[in-house]
Amino acid sequence: MSYFEFLAEYGPRFVDGAAVTALQTVLAAVLAIAIAVAMGLMRLSRNVPVRWFATVYVEIFRGTSLLVQLYWIFFVLPLFGITMEKFTAGFVAVGMNLGAYGAELVRGAILSVPKGQWEAALALNMSPAKRMVRVIFPQAFLAMLPPWGNLLIELLKGTALVSLISVADLMFEAKQINSTTFLSAQAFGTALVIYYVMSRFLITPFMRWLERVMARKMGRA
Amino acid sequence: MSQETLSDFPLELEGADAPMVRFRQVTKRYGNLTVLDSLDLDVAEGEMVTIIGPSGSGKTTVLRMLMTLETINEGVIYVDGKPLTHMPRNGGLVPADNRYLRKMRANIGMCFQHFNLFPHMTAIENCMEGPVHVLGLPKREARERSEELLEMVGMADKRDQHPSRLSGGQQQRVAIARALAMRPKVMLFDEVTSALDPEVIGEVTNVIRKLVGEHNLTMLMVTHQMGFAKDISDRVCFFFGGRIEEQGKPADLFGNPQRERTQQFLSAVKEAS
Ligand SMILES: Nc1ncnc2c1ncn2[C@@H]1O[C@H](COP(=O)(O)OP(=O)(O)OP(=O)(O)O)[C@@H](O)[C@H]1O
Ligand SMILES: [Mg+2]
């Protein structure tokens, strides 16, 4: 079987798998960003229990393996009455894990905003919430975009693990095709190329574009 | 901050001669370092008081405490007759809470050595930010007010530029307009020309000159520019070691300083320039 014949036969399944991977990535990314912002801000809270909660969250999700977390969410949580579809369990696990890493990016970016900005906002008598929303966060956002680009690529790659709970993503399809055809090089090679294209030709250019747009909006371009 | 109720301090300053700003026995410490040492200082309404003194003498600290950027260890600061650092409670004064501080802070505006404009906003957006999002003014009114002030500081033509496109002198003028847009009663200037190239210092000092001439603002200014201080101040305070070593009319303090430390400082400054 030539590679073209292989593609003609199994191409559609790679496309389906890639679509599931893309959807997992987008949903996990949305969740990760929401968690990252919430936990990043909570890590900076003056309220000790709030700060403590966020620290524990970040420690647990960064300190243990994504695969174990995925299994917990899919196999163990049902024992406590929380049952999720495998598709949901997949992006929730990835999103919660990467959200913990993102929280540190958010926290770092907020701390990187010069002290003078806080003081100027206070001198204008802005409330703490307004200071954060109007002055600090927009500047932190710009600063955290480049590392978020890397994190989203990690997130895309992380979604491959959801194949282990039988979500029919790109990796799952590749494994299936491999086990029926034994054409390992073709099956996994194709998956490899698709992952690469998604990260380097979709995520990276998108993030670069976003950085440019935001920089222009903020008068930094 | 001492938590017990202060009973030796008045709850309010009354009478026609009540100062706009009063420091009463104000002490500020960082650890063991006493930065302000039982400081007493009154500034009358509409008065321009300049603070000079060697590095580390507590000049910036005086302004930062008035702006409520620092907490107080002892004593009380009053602004416009009311305590700033404390609030009345049960017939005495207790440390101010955040709500009280926000109410009192509306009286005060500050300009910083490094401008601290918001980089993600244009000049006019910087000026409109407070009026719209703190005072709750309609956008149109805030814009009008800001345009007027940018006009006054000579920055009307740059209103849509971001700070990164402006020179230091231009940024500082926008920062002055931004602070004035809040209509404070007291304006604080902390070395607003120190970070500027010599050739643009004049454009900022001219704005401050204009404020002194045309407005009834109460102003406290820290500066190392003795000539400027002499020109525009109603009174000059020479700080040394967290206290006022000597104060007086600029002609007297610069022309005929009484204390040895003042004389030393002024001659050292003269030699350096
Ligand atoms: N946050 C802080 N923590 C510890 N010490 C501080 C802090 N802020 C100021 N100080 C110290 O307080 C003293 C007075 O500082 P301040 O900034 O008021 O001096 P200054 O008169 O404005 O000096 P300069 O002319 O150098 O600006 C200095 O010795 C300074 O090191
Ligand atoms: Mg200073």
Description:
The complex is a heterodimer of chains A (221) and B (273). Chain A has one domain (17-217): MetI-like (MetI-like fold, Orthogonal Bundle). Helices cover 82% and strands 0% of the residues of chain A. Chain A has 8 helices and no strands. Chain A has helices spanning 3-43, 48-63, 66-76, 86-112, 115-123, 128-158, 170-181, 184-217. In chain A, helix 2 packs across helix 4 (86-112) and helix 5 packs antiparallel against helix 6. The longest helix of chain A has 41 residues, at 3-43. The mean pLDDT of chain A is 94. Chain B is built from 9 helices and 12 strands. In chain B, helix 3 (123-133) packs parallel to helix 5 (168-180), helix 4 crosses helix 5 (168-180) and helix 5 packs parallel to helix 6. A 6-stranded mixed β-sheet of chain B has the order 8-9-10-3-11-12, with helices on both faces. Chain B is α/β, with parallel strands linked by helices. Chain B is globular, with a radius of gyration of 19 Å. The A-B interface holds A 114, 116-117, 119-127, 130, 134-135, 138-139, 142, 217-220 and B 67-69, 102, 105-106, 108-110, 112, 114, 116-122, 129-130, 133-134, 161-165, 175, 178-179, 182. Bound molecules: adenosine-5'-triphosphate and magnesium ion. The site of magnesium ion (MG) has 4 residues of chain B, from helix 1. Residues 59-60, 191, 222 of chain B line the site of magnesium ion (MG). Chain A: It is a multi-pass membrane protein. Chain A: One of its GO terms (molecular function) is transmembrane transporter activity. Chain A: Residues 18-203 form the ABC transmembrane type-1 domain.
Strand and helix layout:
The complex is a heterodimer of chains A (221) and B (273).
Chain A: H1 3-43, H2 48-63, H3 66-76, H4 86-112, H5 115-123, H6 128-158, H7 170-181, H8 184-217
Helix pairs in contact in A: 1-2, 1-4, 1-7, 1-8, 2-4, 3-4, 4-6, 5-6, 6-8, 7-8
Chain B: E1 21-30, E2 33-43, E3 48-52, H1 59-66, E4 74-79, E5 82-83, E6 86-89, E7 92-95, H2 98-105, E8 108-111, H3 123-133, H4 139-152, H5 168-180, E9 186-190, H6 198-214, E10 218-222, H7 226-232, E11 235-240, E12 243-248, H8 250-255, H9 260-272
Parallel strand pairs in B: 3-10, 3-11, 8-9, 9-10
Antiparallel strand pairs in B: 1-2, 1-4, 4-5, 6-7, 11-12
Helix pairs in contact in B: 3-4, 3-5, 4-5, 5-6
Bound molecules: adenosine-5'-triphosphate and magnesium ion.
Adenosine-5'-triphosphate binds at residues 30, 33, 35, 53, 55-61 of chain B.
